[in-house]
Write a structure and sequence with these properties.
Immunoglobulin-like, four-stranded antiparallel sheet, three-stranded antiparallel sheet, 7 strands, rod-shaped
């Protein structure tokens, strides 16, 4: 009697193993592709926002600094072609630099956290400002839309 010494995996088990292996690789690739696309989308969004900043400009129409009442009044004009937001005021004095959010800080009397459209002015009244020698106002495009003024 001759016996066959060939032993192997049944075709059904082989098919299940191949399908399982293929699905595992597909899951790994899908996870990687999702993460990669999220990173690329975030990078492109950041680059797009930076590219828009090329069209941002800001001018100081006028300012008043009253040393007696410690109040600074600014009128900023959007001279660019895109809306500006996230205004921050940096105050320079002999002891250092302080930072004031013109949209959320409690020392700002007329907080406005909406986008400033092109061609429009906006005023800010900041209280509690003492002994400043210089100030700087920046927006969401700090390299292009800023005002720097000595007092």
């Amino acid at each position: 009697m001759a016996y066959s010494l060939r032993k192997g995996v049944s075709p059904l088990v082989a098919a299940v193993l191949l399908i399982s292996f293929t699905m595992a690789i597909a899951a790994i690739l899908a996870t990687w592709a999702t993460q990669y696309m999220s990173q690329q989308t975030a990078t492109l969004t950041t680059k797009g926002n930076e590219a828009n900043c090329v069209y941002a400009r800001m001018a100081l129409d006028t300012f008043t600094y009253d040393k007696n009442s410690n109040q600074l009044i600014l009128i900023i004009n959007n001279d660019g072609r895109i809306g500006l937001q996230n205004f921050t005021l940096f105050l320079y004095n002999g002891s250092g630099i302080s930072r004031v959010s013109l949209e959320t800080d409690t020392s700002v009397t007329n907080k406005q956290n909406t986008t400033l459209p092109p061609g429009e002015p906006r005023s800010f009244i900041v209280n509690g400002v003492s002994n400043i020698t210089r100030f700087r106002v920046v927006s969401n495009c700090p390299e292009y839309a800023f005002v720097d003024k000595s007092v």
